[in-house]
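no rush on this but wanted to send it before i forget. what follows is a protein written twice so to speak, once as letters and once as C-alpha cells for the fold. mainly i need to know what kind of three dimensional shape the backbone takes. thanks a lot i owe you, the record is right below.
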Amino acid sequence: MPAMEAPSLKSAQLAAVHRMLSLNDTNTTKASSPSSSFSYNDAPAGTSYNQWKILIYDIPCRSIISPLLSVSQLRSRGVTLHLLISSTTEREAIPDVPAVYFVEPTRSNLKTIAEDCAKRLYSKVHINFVTKLDRALMEEFGKLMVQNGCLDMIASLHDQYLDFICLEKNLFSLSNQKDSYAMINGSGVTDMVMENYLTDLAFGLLSVVGTTGCVPVIRCPRGGAPEMVARKLNKLIAEHPSTGANYNHSHHSKHMRPLLVILDRNMDLITPIQHSSTYQALIDDLLTHQANRVEFTTKAEGGVRSQVKKFDLDADLDTFYQRHKFNPFPEAIESNGVELNNVTSREKAIRSKTVGGNADDNVDATATANAVSHQEDGMAASDLASAVDSLPKLLEQKKQLEMHTSILQAVMNEVAARDVPQFYELESALASGQYKNDPLKAKNAVMALAIDVSKGNVEDKIRLVIVFCLATTAPGSDVTEVASAMANALESKGTTHTASGGGKGAAHGHGLLSKDDRIKLDKGLKAIAYLKNLRSMQMIPNIVDAVDYGSRTAGNSDLLSGFMARATNQATGLLAKATEKVSSMLGKIVKHYSTRVVENLCEMKPGTEDDEYLYLDPKVKGDVDVKILRNMTRSPCREVITFVIGGGCYAEYQNLQMIADERRSVTYGSTELMSPCEFLSQLGKLS
C-alpha cells in the first residue's frame, strides 16, 4: 500500500473535487479524504467513481481544476468530455450521460443551465457552485426551472466552497481576482464596490477554511482592508454550519488549530518588485509563467527559425523541481548537470549489459527487456530483470531533467542578456540596509546602473529605481533626479534589451525606444511618482528600519568559492556560462516583512506584532484581548496560512518557507500571484 500523503490544502481540495466528480456520493467520503491512498483506476466499473459523465465548467472553475487534474486523470474519474459553459458552439445532446456543472453562481450561468435542462441535453444534471448561491438568485433559478418544466432534471445541487486555485501543496490564490492591488488602492473606487470586493475576498477565504476543515484563529493588523476582511470572515465562519464551533476535522486536534494571518501588500512593496535569485522566482520573472505552465521561445543553433516551447511544472510530483525551486539559480544549474550525467550513466550501464556491451545503441525499454532472456553471463538474471524494470522510470527521470535543462537555459539566456545579477545585487544591498548610512553612495550606485543602456531592459531599470525609492531615506528630489536621468538615457540612446523574443527581455541592437518600451517607461514613471507620493505621506513603512540583519546566510563566501571551484573543474556547457554571470546570486538570504511577522505571531513574542495585531476567534464572541492571553498557556502553532491582500509573489512564498520545518507548515496565499512586471503594471495605473 502506498504511503499516506501528509494532509495539505491541495490534497483537501483535490478530495473535494473527487467527491464532486463522484456525483457527491456520500460513500466516497472515506476514499476521497486527503490522506486516503484510494486509486480511482481500481474503482469497480459502473460506480459513481468512474461512471461516464460530462464536466461543464466556466473559465474561473477551469482555472481551479487545471492544476489539480490532467485530462487523463479526469478520464480515469469517468469524465469523457469537458466543455466550457460559455462555448460559442452549441453543445450536442448526449441524453444517456449525466452532466456535472462546476460554475460560479452567476445569473448568466444559471440561465444557461436552465436552457440545457429545458433541452434535456443530458440524462441528469449535478450542479456544483464554486461558492455560495445567493438566495435571490436561487429563487430566480427555481422559477426558471419550473417555467421550463424541467425541475426533474436536477439530481443534486451543492455549494462546494472551492473558490481558490491551489498551484502547490502550500500555495494558493483566490479565483478570478485580477489587478487586486490597483482595485484596492485605486482612487475612483466607490464604497459599495469596495465593500462587495472585500466580501468576495472573505468568501474566498471561507472556501479555504471550509476545505481545510478546521476553524482557525485569525490575526491581522488593525485598520484597512485586512481588518475588514478578517471581521467579515470571522462572522462567516461562525455562522456557517460546516465550519462552526462543533465541527471537527479528523486530522486536526482541537488544541492544534491553524493560524490565519491576513496581511496588506502595502506593508511590503519591495518583495514583489525586486529581482530574485532562486530558480522558481526567476522562472516567474523572466519567462512567461501562468498556472504552472512555462513558455519561452528558442532559436536553433546557427538558424533563424524560432520554436515556442511549453512545459507544465508540478512542484509536488517533479522531484528535481521540488528540491531546487527555492535554491539559488547557480545551484539549480549545477545540480541539473550532475543529476543528468548520473542518470545518463545509469541508463548506459543498463543498456550495455542487456545488448551485448554496446552502450550507444538506441534501444527502447521493450527491446531491452526482450534481451534479458539472451544473457548467458554477467549479472544474475534477477538483478538484470530488476535493472530493466527500472529503465522506464529512469528514462522518465531523464526526460524530466532534460526539460529543466531547457528551462534553465532559457532563464540563463535572460539572466545573461539583461545582467540580472547586477540588479539583484544592488537591490538586495539597498533592501538589506547596506547603504543606510550613506544615501549619496546609494544614489550614485543606482544612477550608474539606471543610465547604463547596455544593462537590463526598461522594466529592470524602473524596478531598481522603485527599490531605491522604497528601501532608502533618500529625499524625493534624489528619486526624481535618478528617474529623470534614467528616462533621458533611454530616450536618447534606447536600450539593448526589449520585452520581445525568447522571454520577457530578449536582446536587440541600440536604437530609439520601441513603442512597447515607451509605454512601459511612461507607466513606470507613473508608478515611481505614485510610490514617492505614498512615501511622502508616510502611508508605507520604512522597510530598512525593520530588516532582520541577523538572518543573512552564514558562510556565504564559502558557498560562493565552492561553486566557483566546481565551475572551474566542470567549465563546460551551461554551468560554465553561469559562472561569470550569476555567481553573485548565491546566498544573501534575509527574512522579509511577512516572514518576520508570521514568525513573531507563531512564537508569540512579546513586544512584537503579537501584541498589536487583532485577535479574532470564530468560536468566541467579540475580540480577544492578547494581554489576557499572555497570562495563559497557548498551544504552539503547527499550521499557518498567510494571506496577502493586494497580490503575492513567488519570492515571498519562498521566503516564508524559511520558518517552516517538520513541526510547522506554512501555506501561502494571496488575492492573485503576480510577476514583478505584472505588479509594476498595476502600480502604473495608480498615479
